[in-house]
Amino acid sequence: MTESEPLGPRIALFEHALRLHRQHPDGALPRDGEPYPDDEHYRSRPSTRRVRDRRLYGADVAVILDTHFRRPDAPASDLVDAFRDVYVPIHRNDHIVAAALRADRQRVRQTGRWLVRHSNDRSAATVGLALLATDGAEDDIPLIQTIGLLSDQCGPLAADALQRRRGGAEALQWLAERVTGGGRVYVVEALCRQGAASSRPWLLRHACDGDYLNGYFAGEVATAAHLHEAITSPDADDDLIDHTGRLLRTMADCAGMGMTLAHYPPAPVVLAAHAAHLARQPPTANRYVDAAMIAHCLTAGPADRYGCTAAQRDRVVQRYLAVLDQPDWRNAVRAGLDPTSNFYAWFAEHIAARLRLGAFSDLAGSDER
What we know:
Residues 24-50 are annotated as: Disordered. By secondary structure, this protein is mainly alpha-helical. The chain has two domains: 1-194, no CATH class; 198-369, no CATH class. The protein is 55% helix and 0% strand. The protein is built from 19 helices and no strands. The protein has helices at residues 13-23, 39-44, 59-69, 94-102, 105-118, 122-132, 141-148, 151-163, 168-176, 181-194, 200-206, 218-224, 227-231, 238-251, 267-278, 285-298, 310-324, 327-336, 342-355. The chain is elongated and about 75 Å long. The chain starts with 12 loop residues before the first helix and ends in a 14-residue tail after the last helix. The relative contact order is 0.07.
């Protein structure tokens, strides 16, 4: 089997991702790379019904692969349209893995590479990525990273494929810096599982980007990166302190998604350390908002919901409020938030009013709980 030029009038998904990456080399692709080149064809095809038994997801893909690999001379291009009428999982799938393990390893690798690089159909490209995820060849890292930039479709399998390779931690961090949304969840989770010391500084300062989906992995980041050790250091830098605020804010209000403060044993220590560091930082609107959101969450329910005793919770809340009530912090949030924005109105009504924050005391109803 030899590689050939991309098929059909549409460009391959890999080429689409590569072109966008060249335009945005250090950031996420606009709209996560959407629309994809196959959007028109993808929407027009009949909807594929999933079988009711989740255990059978991917079984029909495996049948197609088994049939293909039994034909020694069948080119990978035969598979480009083979998955148009079946449901293709975007996560690691036991049936597809088993089909790959039943076939010749070198042929599986070549087929995966060809489908990822040349498929102009997302289903075929995803199957190619799934095949590469069963292998560990380091040469495929750049290929996997590039298709992984289309994170909503390819992020989960790209993360799975990279974590199985030597050098995977560095590759995952590169990808995590360039994806957003749901796909980023899988990449950061894989980075946490790697446990590489080289990734710890990034996890401690950049893993949470403010998206609400951070709730799925914030606790994993705090645990894997040993946040309690880093934030209790007197030499903690501003990036670490700010990111700790985002982690705490997320973990205080992510029930149903990921680990909450109630299930994070160092919560009291980390909260106290963050509040202490905050008092020594220059005021900014973002720091003000994060601290206020943490304090608000801590007062919204019983202390044990946040991993604290009542005394620990009360001390931390008072420490946050003492910082937020300082004149320079009041001025910072007034200057940094747009008073005409929806967020400002929501924050003033639901957070500032409950905490009786002085920066918002001129608003009607701010003295009511």
